[in-house]
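Re: the 468-residue chain
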Amino acid sequence: MKSFATLHNDPDAPLSWRERIGYGLGSFGIFLFVPVFTSYVTMYMTDVAMLEIKMVTLIFGISRLLDGVTDIIAGILVDKTRHPMGKARTWILRATPGIFISMILLFNIPSFLPVNLKYVYLFIFYNLSSSVFLTMGLVCETSLFPLMTRNPKEQTLLGNIQGIADHIGTFVFSLFFMRLMAFFNGDNKSQFSQRAVSLTITIFAAAGCALMLFALLFVKERVSSAVVKNKEDNSNKEVILQNIQKLLKNKNWLLLVAASIVFNVGMVMNIMSTMYYSTYILGDVETFNIINGAFSLSQLVGSVVLLFILPRLKGRKILYICLNAVSGISILGAYYFYSDLRGVVLCIIIRGFVIGMIMAMNLIMTADVIRYTAYNDRVNVSGICSAGSAFVTKAGMGIGTFVFGVLMSAAGYDPNTIEIMTGQAASVHSTIVSVFALWPAVISVMVCVLMMFYNQDKKLKKYEGGRQ
């Protein structure tokens, strides 16, 4: 395969902007899929496939916990792989066709199936698309930049680039997804048809997979298990278990894990409720484009601003706590404004700006743990560490998804009222508003408390001085 990556093989040398942007293209491609699963899949299952929300979110919750297991398996596979293309690039190439096919099948539930078989179909293809193929792609994308370079400044930059790519993917989803569905839906303005969903998903899946494959031409893996001074095979099961044990003894890694679980419970509840908030509280599904677009665009700006702020700071901890505090205060403002679109959008812009920084910092702080483990324990844990991060993200999302479904079902949500945009019961309205704004605010406080005990910055100074 022809390569356009930076010509050198030195893991400590700077990378070219061609390779940095190439890495960002691959991340952008895979992050086109993420908002489809976080923002739209639930509403498709309830309001197009007409499945019961409690059953749908129960399946999603269980699947995301299983997804966490496949994250660990994916990380182990990455760490064990020995291939001329590298550890992560090899699996990106293998996973991409599976993402394309399984996503199309997931969003085309056959209408002739009995209801119980529809749930079985949903469980199978949701797990194939999300838990298997998309998980492998995400773990590999996250594992890739610590394998491309060992240079802490380059890792910080690539972590920011991935964060920016994530937000661009969400913004493109916000800008085009609902508009494409409306275009393919024709004159029916009350409920999207299966045809509109199928065509839109096919376009997004094709675009994302094409970008992932194209990006492989621009990146190269330079960091190997050579950080281990002895000749042990890093793919050995005993060595992998020892690596996991080393991570589990790292207090800062465990704090990141706990904070990530809590953070993602709040994130997924807010994101999943946005479509319902637009439809049933604001009374216009088109406001989803405004809210989600404002959120994703401000996330993008926040992650870009972080590029200039982070190199000037001596540590990450204080900034991370402050950003989570602002996130909680801003979303609480959305709870206050309730049905005032302008007030809600203002609060969402502020929250999106700080969330953009937080998500980029999550990647960078994970890379800090990988570097510290390489210095302190002389092992490369990029695959298993990235998989662990993905696992706890999915665990948090699974918990948040299940809680969202239980709350909505208990409130009496009925998808058959879709043609009467504000036709849900008052209990459903109050539940949607609480899940959209109040729960995420409380969760932000919990993250701040957890991260007060974080001190990885100080430990890295032992090896890097002021190089962070």
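Residues 341-377 form the longest helix (37 residues).
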